[in-house]
Amino acid sequence: MTALEEAAEQSAAATSADTGVYTPLLVPVQDHQETKAAEPILTVRGVERSFHVGGRQLHVLKGIDMELTPNRLVMLRGRSGSGKTTLLNMIGGLDQPDRGEIFFMGQPFHQWNDDKRTEVRRKRIGFIFQSFALMPLLSAWENVELSLRMAGVPRSQWKPRVQHCLELVGLGKRMHHRPFELSGGEQQRVAIAKAIAHRPTMLLADEPTAELDSQMGAQVMSVFKDIIRTEQVTICMTTHDPTILEVADHVYQMVDGKFIHT
Ligand SMILES: Nc1ncnc2c1ncn2[C@@H]1O[C@H](COP(=O)(O)OP(=O)(O)OP(=O)(O)O)[C@@H](O)[C@H]1O
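Above: the input record for the complex with adenosine-5'-triphosphate. Below: its predicted structure, written as tokens.
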């Protein structure tokens, strides 16, 4: 039995409120028929990106086409160096393509300057990194609050939203712990709460389970499934882990800067 199947089985008997142990329900994201005709929230067409390295041109992305539709869990899979993070940065408006187009909710990221992309990013996109990226001196609560402050959410809305997000990721009983008082899996769940607090449309996660053991990795994936359903978000994540791919709605396989069909 894989770690994910184990997590699903545990979830069936979940008693998180009683035990404080997080065992979320692993359920299908939603009826795929329902959103089949849905407009994509992200469209990537013919994207290329090169870097100058040591006097040479390194062609990292060689013509990427992809779409993300609402309420999906999409994974980018590929070897180290194949270009996954470069693409994720591009989708999130952190970098721009040399060629090609990126439309996020109809907005042309490839034509916009950094300030304009940052504005959209703060309001509509959430990021999760391999290394959790939490402020070490702030509690779980304060870390989540910080992201609401950054997104310009009115202070009067902070308390219920922070509480909701931390409960959603199963940390209702550890809200006031600081990162060093939490396990790796719990820290990653704080990072997820922080990333969804401002109600993004799209959540981007770069190897979110890479530093976790398989059990904790499975918990994080269950949280992802839950938040797609309850928060109406689309998640695009990179992974090396073949056991995690089975919960994806779609997998893009990247080889040397291109998608291949498997
Ligand atoms: N800013 C940059 N300047 C120069 N080279 C870069 C830059 N960003 C990425 N690269 C190079 O582009 C290639 C692809 O890197 P990228 O991080 O996108 O791969 P990846 O598939 O995410 O790998 P990993 O799984 O190890 O994170 C690598 O050879 C990397 O060294």
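Notes for the reader.
The pocket of adenosine-5'-triphosphate is lined by residues 51, 53, 58, 60, 78, 80-86 (CB under 6 Å).
Confidence is low (pLDDT under 50) at residues 1-35.
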